[in-house]
Design goal:
Radius of gyration: 20 Å
Number of helices: 11
Shape: globular
Largest sheet: 7 strands, parallel
Mean pLDDT: 94
Structural class: alpha/beta
Low-confidence stretches: 139-150
Oligomer: single chain
């Protein structure tokens, strides 16, 4: 069966990455692409690397143009998805690549965003480890018309994606920190009261908007912190994920740093280790958490990842170490913010929701050099 697909926000970075992956997906047919100010333009004028989609023209982003498809991806600015999504049919699989449907607590939304809180959808990080109580009862029967072969619980967030018709793709930084630390939280080997995460991130995560801080003359040869002092919008998303992994009241000091690479996130996250835990135990906890995951790979002890090794892939690489002198576990995680951080996670989640093989259309092989 072939599923018809529409992509809103198709002229942006996230929209372009969705289309690049979808163009090679054997079960999806891209029928409609939309934009706001670029409506009426040929898609190829804004995504010149997508040669196989040169026949498509950007339509206006309206619920009418998006309706009538099996799957709709909304790659829109924060605050722009909720109203459109509410107008789409219930049986359409809708994936929000913005923030509108990630946060469960309206107070978190009010504190870090503005406007109406549209409610939380199934969170699109299938590999996220869940605490036993969070995992229990998270599996629903697949919706009518899906192919899901099994609803056996896995203790991961993918359980909540089976048969889902509304999916919230993650924040790229939030998924990086969450995947890096959730195994230790769930296993009880690290504390949740003193978590520190510093991320080197590429500017593509901020989209195509023309802002001075993203100009090449500002970025090249420089590293620029932003969202400092507990102000970054991904903080409540990280805390929400770590609570699902078993944290009671996680406190997170989160500092992203803009660096001169177009894609990629290198997240260094640390937390206090519980007394008596050894380096071997730490390594074993992370390896066990992701042992069967096709896209999340824990590296051998003493090995650390590079962003260069995950570019253009749905791959997450994690290195983990014990800093015995400081009494902290140190994790270093690399992912491509546009691929696994956004578009790849969205498509992987839809594969699960529709009962397709989770890996369909996605690659673990990066691009080098």
């Amino acid at each position: 069966m072939t599923f018809s697909v529409a992509v809103a926000g198709a002229s942006g970075y996230a929209g372009g990455e969705l289309l690049r992956i979808l163009a090679g997906h054997p079960d999806f047919e891209i029928r409609t692409v939309t934009a706001h100010q670029n409506a009426g333009h040929p898609l190829i004028a804004h995504q010149p690397h997508l040669r196989s989609l040169a026949h498509l023209t950007l339509l206006e982003t309206t619920a009418e143009n998006l309706a009538g498809h099996d799957v709709v991806f909304l790659a829109l600015p924060h605050g722009a998805s909720g109203e459109i999504a509410a107008q789409l049919p219930d049986d359409t699989v809708v994936v929000d690549c913005g923030a509108d449907h990630r946060l469960e607590d309206p107070a978190d939304w009010a504190a870090f965003y503005s406007g109406e809180h549209f409610g939380a959808w199934a969170y699109g990080v299938p590999e996220l480890p869940l605490a036993t109580d969070a995992a229990a009862g998270s599996v629903d029967a697949p919706a009518a018309g899906t192919h899901a072969a099994s609803t056996a619980p896995t203790g991961k967030q993918r359980d909540a994606l089976l048969g889902a018709r509304r999916i919230a793709a993650p924040g790229c930084n939030a998924s990086a920190v969450s995947l890096a630390l959730a195994p230790g939280i769930r296993a009880g080997v690290i504390d949740d009261e003193d978590i520190v995460a510093v991320l080197a991130v590429g500017p593509s995560g901020a989209g195509k908007s023309l802002k001075t801080m993203y100009l090449a003359s500002e970025i090249l040869g420089s590293a620029n912190p932003y969202g400092v002092g507990g102000t970054h919008r991904h903080i409540p998303e990280i805390q929400q994920n770590l609570r699902k992994a078993g944290a009671e009241a996680p406190t997170v000091s989160f500092t992203p740093v803009l660096v001169p690479m177009s894609r990629g996130i290198l997240a260094t996250s640390t937390a206090r280790v519980r007394p008596g835990v050894t380096a071997e135990q730490v390594q074993a906890v992370w390896e066990e958490a992701y042992a069967d995951e096709p896209f999340v790979h824990v590296l051998p002890a003493g090995t650390l990842p590079r962003t260069a090794d995950v570019l253009g892939a749905n791959t997450v690489l994690i290195g983990v170490a014990l800093d015995a002198a400081a009494g902290r576990v140190v994790t270093v995680l690399a992912l491509d913010n546009l691929y696994k951080g956004t578009a790849g996670a969205a498509i992987q989640s839809v594969n699960i929701a529709l009962g397709l093989d989770e890996t369909t259309g996605l690659t673990v092989n990066g691009v080098a050099p």
